[in-house]
Design brief:
Length: 173
Protein backbone atom coordinates (compact mmCIF):
# COMPACT_ATOMS: atom_id res chain seq x y z
CA UNK A 1 0.00 0.00 0.00
CA UNK A 2 1.43 3.36 -1.08
CA UNK A 3 0.82 6.00 1.59
CA UNK A 4 0.95 9.75 1.02
CA UNK A 5 0.97 12.64 3.48
CA UNK A 6 -2.23 14.62 4.00
CA UNK A 7 -1.99 18.35 4.75
CA UNK A 8 -4.09 21.31 5.71
CA UNK A 9 -4.35 24.41 3.49
CA UNK A 10 -1.07 25.73 4.92
CA UNK A 11 0.95 22.60 4.14
CA UNK A 12 0.96 21.33 7.73
CA UNK A 13 1.02 17.54 7.92
CA UNK A 14 -2.22 16.18 9.39
CA UNK A 15 -2.08 12.47 8.62
CA UNK A 16 -1.71 9.94 5.84
CA UNK A 17 -3.86 8.04 3.37
CA UNK A 18 -3.51 5.35 0.75
CA UNK A 19 -2.48 7.10 -2.49
CA UNK A 20 -5.29 6.05 -4.82
CA UNK A 21 -7.94 6.44 -2.11
CA UNK A 22 -6.77 10.03 -1.55
CA UNK A 23 -7.69 10.78 -5.18
CA UNK A 24 -11.29 9.46 -5.00
CA UNK A 25 -14.48 11.32 -4.02
CA UNK A 26 -13.19 14.82 -4.65
CA UNK A 27 -9.70 14.07 -3.38
CA UNK A 28 -7.92 14.81 -0.12
CA UNK A 29 -5.35 17.58 0.11
CA UNK A 30 -1.88 16.04 0.18
CA UNK A 31 1.81 16.91 -0.16
CA UNK A 32 3.39 16.65 -3.58
CA UNK A 33 6.26 18.03 -5.64
CA UNK A 34 6.90 18.92 -9.27
CA UNK A 35 10.45 18.98 -10.60
CA UNK A 36 11.66 21.16 -13.49
CA UNK A 37 15.11 20.22 -14.88
CA UNK A 38 16.84 22.56 -17.34
CA UNK A 39 19.94 21.85 -19.42
CA UNK A 40 22.75 24.26 -20.28
CA UNK A 41 20.72 25.54 -23.28
CA UNK A 42 17.92 26.46 -20.84
CA UNK A 43 15.67 23.77 -22.31
CA UNK A 44 13.20 22.07 -20.00
CA UNK A 45 13.14 18.28 -19.80
CA UNK A 46 9.51 17.28 -20.38
CA UNK A 47 7.88 13.91 -19.97
CA UNK A 48 4.79 12.44 -21.55
CA UNK A 49 3.09 10.47 -18.81
CA UNK A 50 2.91 6.74 -19.57
CA UNK A 51 -0.35 5.27 -20.84
CA UNK A 52 -0.60 3.12 -17.69
CA UNK A 53 -0.55 6.07 -15.23
CA UNK A 54 -3.51 6.07 -12.84
CA UNK A 55 -4.59 9.55 -13.88
CA UNK A 56 -3.78 12.14 -16.55
CA UNK A 57 -2.12 9.45 -18.70
CA UNK A 58 -0.55 10.33 -22.08
CA UNK A 59 -0.27 14.04 -21.27
CA UNK A 60 2.90 16.12 -21.41
CA UNK A 61 4.16 17.48 -18.12
CA UNK A 62 7.19 18.72 -16.24
CA UNK A 63 10.24 16.53 -15.70
CA UNK A 64 8.98 14.57 -12.72
CA UNK A 65 6.24 14.61 -10.08
CA UNK A 66 5.55 12.66 -6.96
CA UNK A 67 4.48 12.41 -3.36
CA UNK A 68 6.68 12.07 -0.29
CA UNK A 69 5.83 9.09 1.84
CA UNK A 70 4.91 9.89 5.46
CA UNK A 71 8.04 11.11 7.28
CA UNK A 72 10.03 11.74 4.09
CA UNK A 73 11.29 15.26 3.36
CA UNK A 74 10.26 16.91 0.06
CA UNK A 75 13.80 17.21 -1.40
CA UNK A 76 14.67 13.60 -0.47
CA UNK A 77 11.43 12.35 -2.04
CA UNK A 78 12.04 14.40 -5.17
CA UNK A 79 15.60 13.08 -5.51
CA UNK A 80 14.29 9.51 -5.11
CA UNK A 81 11.60 9.96 -7.78
CA UNK A 82 13.93 11.67 -10.25
CA UNK A 83 16.28 8.67 -10.10
CA UNK A 84 13.35 6.22 -10.31
CA UNK A 85 11.74 7.95 -13.29
CA UNK A 86 14.68 9.39 -15.28
CA UNK A 87 17.73 7.52 -13.92
CA UNK A 88 19.78 10.51 -12.75
CA UNK A 89 20.03 12.93 -9.86
CA UNK A 90 20.95 16.58 -9.54
CA UNK A 91 20.74 19.32 -6.93
CA UNK A 92 17.18 20.64 -6.50
CA UNK A 93 16.04 23.96 -5.05
CA UNK A 94 12.54 24.83 -3.99
CA UNK A 95 11.10 27.91 -5.74
CA UNK A 96 7.54 28.18 -4.38
CA UNK A 97 4.45 26.25 -3.35
CA UNK A 98 0.91 26.31 -4.64
CA UNK A 99 -2.35 24.58 -3.95
CA UNK A 100 -4.49 23.31 -6.79
CA UNK A 101 -7.23 20.86 -7.66
CA UNK A 102 -7.74 19.04 -10.97
CA UNK A 103 -10.32 16.45 -11.97
CA UNK A 104 -9.51 13.74 -14.53
CA UNK A 105 -12.73 12.96 -16.41
CA UNK A 106 -11.31 9.72 -17.87
CA UNK A 107 -10.51 8.14 -14.50
CA UNK A 108 -12.84 10.18 -12.26
CA UNK A 109 -9.92 10.86 -9.93
CA UNK A 110 -9.14 14.24 -8.38
CA UNK A 111 -5.67 15.61 -7.79
CA UNK A 112 -5.75 17.97 -4.80
CA UNK A 113 -2.24 18.97 -3.88
CA UNK A 114 -0.16 21.25 -1.73
CA UNK A 115 2.58 21.33 -4.34
CA UNK A 116 6.28 22.18 -3.93
CA UNK A 117 7.94 23.43 -7.13
CA UNK A 118 11.59 22.36 -7.43
CA UNK A 119 14.13 23.49 -10.02
CA UNK A 120 17.39 21.83 -11.04
CA UNK A 121 19.97 21.76 -13.81
CA UNK A 122 21.43 18.78 -15.60
CA UNK A 123 22.97 17.84 -18.93
CA UNK A 124 22.88 14.11 -18.18
CA UNK A 125 21.31 11.72 -20.68
CA UNK A 126 17.93 10.58 -19.30
CA UNK A 127 17.21 6.89 -18.91
CA UNK A 128 13.42 6.91 -18.48
CA UNK A 129 11.39 4.16 -16.84
CA UNK A 130 8.76 3.18 -19.46
CA UNK A 131 6.20 2.37 -16.76
CA UNK A 132 6.33 6.03 -15.73
CA UNK A 133 7.32 7.89 -18.89
CA UNK A 134 5.84 7.24 -22.34
CA UNK A 135 8.08 9.76 -24.10
CA UNK A 136 10.37 12.68 -23.29
CA UNK A 137 11.81 15.72 -25.00
CA UNK A 138 13.60 19.01 -24.40
CA UNK A 139 11.87 22.31 -25.16
CA UNK A 140 12.44 25.99 -24.60
CA UNK A 141 9.95 27.94 -22.52
CA UNK A 142 8.98 29.94 -25.62
CA UNK A 143 8.12 26.72 -27.48
CA UNK A 144 6.18 25.41 -24.50
CA UNK A 145 4.25 28.69 -24.21
CA UNK A 146 3.34 28.54 -27.92
CA UNK A 147 2.13 24.95 -27.54
CA UNK A 148 0.12 25.82 -24.44
CA UNK A 149 -1.53 28.67 -26.34
CA UNK A 150 -2.66 26.33 -29.14
CA UNK A 151 -3.07 22.88 -27.54
CA UNK A 152 -3.35 23.18 -23.74
CA UNK A 153 -5.28 19.90 -23.59
CA UNK A 154 -2.02 18.05 -24.37
CA UNK A 155 -0.59 19.05 -20.98
CA UNK A 156 -1.37 18.18 -17.37
CA UNK A 157 -3.43 20.75 -15.46
CA UNK A 158 -0.72 21.39 -12.86
CA UNK A 159 1.91 21.95 -15.54
CA UNK A 160 -0.25 24.60 -17.21
CA UNK A 161 -0.67 26.41 -13.86
CA UNK A 162 3.00 26.23 -12.93
CA UNK A 163 4.31 27.33 -16.32
CA UNK A 164 1.96 30.32 -16.33
CA UNK A 165 3.27 31.36 -12.93
CA UNK A 166 6.88 30.72 -13.86
CA UNK A 167 6.61 32.71 -17.08
CA UNK A 168 4.88 35.68 -15.43
CA UNK A 169 7.04 35.84 -12.32
CA UNK A 170 10.34 34.74 -13.82
CA UNK A 171 10.75 32.20 -11.02
CA UNK A 172 13.13 30.15 -13.21
CA UNK A 173 16.23 32.23 -12.49
Amino acid sequence: MDLITLTDQHGNKIGSAEKIAAHHNGGQLHLAFSIFIFNKKNELLLQKRAACKYHFANLWSNTCCGHPIPGEEIIAAAQRRLVEEFGFSTKLQQRFTLMYEAYDEKTELTEKEFLHILIGNSNKQPSPDPTEIGDWRLATLNNIKAELDTTPENYTPWFRLIIKRLLTSEQMA
